[in-house]
Amino acid sequence: MTAIEILGLAAGTISSITFLPQVTRIWKTKSAKDLSMNMLFLLILGVSMWLVYGVVQKDLAIIYTNSMVLVMSVIMFFFKIKFR
Predict the structure, then answer these.
(1) Model confidence pLDDT, tens digit, residues 41-79
(2) Phi/psi class of residue 30: alpha, beta or left (left: φ > 0; alpha: ψ in -120 to 50)?
(3) SS3 breakdown of the chain: % helix, strand, coil, rounded to 5?
(4) Which residue in 13, 27, 48, 62 could disulfide with 54, CB within 3.0 to 4.6 Å?
(5) In whole angstroms, what is the distance from residue 35 CA to residue 12 CA?
(6) CATH no. for residue 29?
(7) CA 73 to CA 42: how far, in whole Å?
(8) Does the pTM of the predicted model rise above 0.85?
């Protein structure tokens, strides 16, 4: 693994964990009322497209980062519906 690949994975990790406090807060408070359903839908759509792009390009950093963000986005979407 090259230094630039490590940098990409590290950047992806940092970018991905920015969603963790929001997911944790929704879970603890059992409230997602402040999240926009439109924003979540667009986020899931955009991240899914980035994930497909990463797979086609065989770019591990893009695949890794967008997989993590997609999982957390889907969890937030699920919580938005569950805690309605």
Answers:
(1) 999 999 999 999 999 999 999 999 999 999 999 999 999
(2) left
(3) 80, 0, 20
(4) 62
(5) 23
(6) 1.20.1280.290
(7) 10
(8) yes
